[in-house]
Amino acid sequence: MPTEIELARFNMVEQQIRPWDVLDKRVLEVFFNVQRERFVPAAERKHAFADVAVPIGHGQTMLPPVVEGRILQYLQVQSNERVLEIGTGTGFFTACLASLGNSVRSVDIFPDFTERAGSLLSELGFGRVVLETGDAHDGWATDERFDVIVFTGAHVSMPEGCFHQLNVGGRLLAITGNGPIQTVSMVTRVSETQFDTDSLFETRTGYLIGAEPQPAFSL
């Protein structure tokens, strides 16, 4: 007999993620294999498999599983690719990326997020992951290039400052907009000088620190 947690995980995949046309077997296996409940704060554990943005502290939230699944399917992270993640949070999405790619460098502005995520990722055996703390809303590690760059929080506009960190053929995914609905878009570096942008789907999530809409001033 499956445990309650195993059943909840199965339902998350089969009743939430798969119905949104997330059909990539590698992506679905990640959601079966990575223990999402371990990454959710204890006070929110009952919502670990729910289709909601789970609060994690500092006014931040985890992306809902459906959004995470769709992002991973669009990114098509390959086993030989290097990934830069902006917004570590609890480390769950970091673990998903590490399960698919070759290595992950993940940055968060909150030191306690970095510390907790690092301890848990190490405990669960996720190697080839480097966690750092700092303000990376417009890019990080400027002397390196990556095959995949993904932002787990929103920006008002596309973070063009880190386009140069993509390898040719690399993909950057960001959530942008300042209205009630935001757009998930992917930028592909076609050549050293050419970048193509595709709008993928609409969602709503919180902004990365430093990437929020500026307050409107009235006279």
Quickly list its features.
Rossmann fold; 9 strands; two-stranded antiparallel ribbon; 219 residues; single chain; 7-stranded mixed β-sheet; 27% helix; alpha/beta; 6 helices
Structural summary, described in words:
This protein has six helices and nine strands, in the order αααββαβαβαβββββ. It is globular. α1 packs across α4 (65-75). The N and C termini lie far apart (66 Å). The strands form two sheets. It has a seven-stranded mixed sheet, covered by helices on one side. A hairpin with a 2-residue loop joins β1 (55-57) and β2. It is an alpha/beta fold and 219 residues long. The protein has one domain: Vaccinia Virus protein VP39 (Rossmann fold, 3-Layer(aba) Sandwich). It has helices spanning 4-17, 25-33, 36-39, 65-75, 92-100, 111-123; strands at residues 55-57, 60-61, 82-86, 103-108, 129-133, 146-155, 166-176, 182-189, 195-203.
Computed over alpha carbons, the radius of gyration is: 17 Å
Strand arrangement, largest sheet? 5-4-3-6-7-8-9
Unreliable stretches, pLDDT < 50, 5 or more residues? none
The CATH superfamily is identified as: Vaccinia Virus protein VP39
Mean pLDDT: 94
Number of domains: 1
Predict the CATH topology. Answer: Rossmann fold
Please tell me the CATH architecture by its name.
Answer: 3-Layer(aba) Sandwich
Count every beta strand, where a strand is a DSSP E run of 2 or more residues.
9
